[in-house]
Amino acid sequence: MQALAVWLYDTHIADLHADHRGRPGWTWSDAAYGRWGSQSRVVSHLLPVTSPGTRANPARVRVFLDGLLPEGNARTNYALSAGVAPEDTFGLISAYGRDTAGALVFQGLAEDAPDRTGSYERATDPEVATLLREADRHSPADHTLRGNQSISLAGMIPKIGLHRDAVGWLRCLGGAPSTWILKIAHPETSPVADVVDTEALALALARSLGLTTVDAHVLSVDGVRAIAVSRYDRKADESGRIRRVHQEDSAQALSISTADPTRKFQYGNALPSLSAIAEILRAGGAEPDDLLRLVTFNVAIGNTDMHAKNISVLRLPDGSARLAPAYDTSMHLHHPTSQRRFGFDIDGESDLDRIDTRALVAEGRSWRLPERRATELVTSTLEGLGRALDEVDRAAHPGVGDGAVETVAARVSSLLAGALTVAPAVRARRGPRRRST
């Protein structure tokens, strides 16, 4: 039986094995049980730690592992490069599981702890450009460039993981943690060529509101246009060593298979839903306040690509959980061909032209947030976004046209106009405040 050791936070937490048909299985270790105890969700909301030797639910294991891997054409490319079938989850994890989204490391049973493995190698601009081009092709990447990289980055958009120092880009070999993600841009002739530009601007706005720690900028590498995004799940310690921070996306946490990519969106289904994500946060000891702020922000900027894989939960070494910083967020409604459907229902509504402040507050209330708190969260986020739009350095985002910014500014103004009618109504129902004596 093939097997891999699964590591998390310097602990060998489980063994991943494949049966004679290649189906993955997960067996918890003594170390995981001893460190976190039974039912800890330090790995995943629906894969709690159980007693040593116990096998986790195989269907949930498969969905969770698939959530670490690319989707669609990107998964096919990874499989071709590794010489395995695209549906071979265990084979793909074996090839690319040394550096995944979050902090899990999958490696040989007899290998040293992952903090003692891996190295970096300088990458020239032409080499980075080749890696970006190959990420979007149905053929194996140039193995002289890939070397022994073993990085898995989930999602549909072709991307690569690299490290960066003061000199430039470095490839991550043998499981060394990547710290940046580079995504190739749409062709300049595409009607949505500015998606990477509006993503960089949206993340700058989100950072000014405290919704993300991510840094992003658009660059051209040897003629290949791309966006570089810093990884929030990588942190340097006092010695400068890169540490992984665990996370799972909401589709993984809800055990939703995204083999059909549309399942990432709610689109009339019971799941995924924002209320379910709010409950995941509460189960990890966090209130969903930041989730409501994040949703309000994405509604305001017109991000029609907000879905379950673009909302993640950080799972910290003490077993607690909190909302991950914003990522993969951009502006879409200025595009003439853009759909206007949000990825989640907001108080039963998904049409972005019909989602108003009242709907956002009502959605927050459905998560058991008090009405006054929900109103203040929505209003303060919109007000902060309005200020950020006024103050942002537009010269730093030359690829963003006036139409994109004006569309968002108009939406913020419209939503705030609705907010002015919500807050007085809340105060009226509560009655006047008592003065302290």
UniProtKB/TrEMBL annotation:
The HipA N-terminal subdomain domain, residue ranges: 4-106
Superkingdom in the source lineage: Bacteria
Domain HipA-like C-terminal: 151-382
InterPro entries per record: HipA-like_C (IPR012893), HipA_N1 (IPR017508), HipA_Ser/Thr_kinase (IPR052028)
Keywords: Kinase, Transferase
Cited Pfam families: Couple_hipA, HipA_C
GO MF annotation list: protein serine/threonine kinase activity
CC annotations in GO: cytosol
Family matches, as NCBIfam families: couple_hipA (TIGR03071)
Family statement: Belongs to the HipA Ser/Thr kinase family.
Protein name, per record: Phosphatidylinositol kinase
Protein's organism: Intrasporangium oryzae NRRL B-24470
